[in-house]
Amino acid sequence: MKTDIHDQLGLRRVINARGSYTPFGVSRSHDAVAAVVAESLKHYFVMSELAEAAGDRIANIYDVESVGFSHCAAGSITMAIAAVMVGEDMDLLYKLPDTCNISHRVVIQAGHLVNYGQPVEQAIRLAGAEVVVAGGQHGCTVEELEAALDTDDVCALMCVESRLCKPGTVAADQAVALAHKKGVTAVIDAAAQDLRLPDVLGFGADITITSGQKYYAGPTCGLALGSKSMVGAMALQEKGIGRAMKLTKEGIIGALAAVELRVQTDMDAWSAEQKSKSDDFAAHLNQIRHLTVACEADQTGLPFLRVRAALDEASAGHTAFQVAEHLAANDPMISVQEHELDKGVLNFEIIGLNRSELEIIYERLSDLLD
Question: Which stretches does DSSP call E strand in 169-319?
Fold first, then answer.
């Protein structure tokens, strides 16, 4: 079952039931996207023309003014904050990350301080900005967010749309409206929300960032959707601190191919197939002793289910951590989500897996627990 690449390099195969997770390569591209990427590698392009043409195509699909690209969503965050601070002023652009005499404070709610492999606040600080945290462990109230936005030298509000966010925060649309009332630019990080991107764009942020390699399953890419002025200012950052974050020809062409493939996909049929697969997998796992299994909706409203398996650790003689380690210890390695292992729960995101891979997960769990 191993591919030539795994054999050639002596690598383990991965059954990724963790989701669009960067350490495992994020996603699997459709053959059509891979073919377009491979073809692009054979050609030269005027990169500015390529970025503009591809950006215009995607902008037309999502009915936004402009779309820009970066190497990844995290890079887009840094470039967006830099663009907010200095706009198209090249003298200031070349100064970054020195923000002396530049409005440089960025407000973010405490519940949005997520870590997706890098703390989101670090992506902000890389531009030279200073983070102002609104709220605390309890969440964030409208009054607390408003007070933070009134801080001297605030230039931007950063909102994060993710199931990693903690509850009790001000909703993104309300937060964006409040920022605009204060004359503050609003940026939304919606890296893994491309399946509900039209809804997120409706929040009205000046820049909305998403990932081209999460559920789009394109090559590594960050997409920034927003006004022409903001996207243009972000593109200029390639001459400054964003130089290392610029996107390649294959990244731009692959991102466009992945977005256009999404438009051609019957999403109702896709969601129905994902539900059928999740229901069947959950029913299968429920046959294993010590597991109580159910399907669970995504907290942010993504149109698919995850499978949640609660382990009776006492009767099984294993903790959920030990079961996860067992799954990951073999070839193919099986990776599950980590966020509820301390509660005795194994969570599976399976939309990137085929049914034969799900059978391997079942067999591995059954061998251990039955």
Answer: 185-189, 207-211, 222-226, 291-297, 305-311
One domain for residues 97 and 208: yes
Residue 299 lies in a domain: yes
Distance CA 171, CA 192 (A): 17
289 in the same domain as 330: yes
For the chain, helix (H) and strand (E) counts, in that order, are 15, 12
- Provide the H-helix boundaries in the chain: 4-9, 31-40, 47-62, 73-86, 90-95, 120-125, 142-149, 172-181, 197-201, 228-236, 249-264, 267-285, 313-316, 320-328, 355-369
Parent domain of 97: 44-264
Task: Specify if 240 maps to a domain.
Answer: yes
Question: Residue 29, CB half-sphere, CA atoms under 13 Å: how many?
Answer: 22
How many structural domains is the chain composed of?
A: 2
Task: Single out the residue of 100, 80, 229 nearest to residue 153, CA to CA.
Answer: 100
For the segment 264-310, what is each residue's pLDDT rounded down to a tens digit? 999 999 999 999 999 999 999 999 999 999 999 999 999 999 999 99
Kindly state whether residue 8 falls inside one of the protein's structural domains: yes
Q: Is residue 138 part of a domain?
A: yes
Enumerate the β-bridge partners of residue 136: 139
- Shared domain for 79 and 60, answered yes or no, is yes
Single residue among 235, 264, 293 that ends a domain in this structure: 264
Q: Does residue 198 have a cis bond before it (omega within 30 degrees)?
A: no
Same domain for 211 and 358, yes or no, is no
The CA distance from 58 to 66, in Å, is 8
Asked whether the bond before 332 is cis by omega within 30 degrees of 0, the reply is yes
Query: What are the pLDDT digits (tens) for 98-152?
Result: 999 999 999 999 999 999 989 999 999 999 999 999 999 999 999 999 999 999 9
The C-alpha atoms of residue 310 and residue 256 are separated, in whole angstroms, by: 40
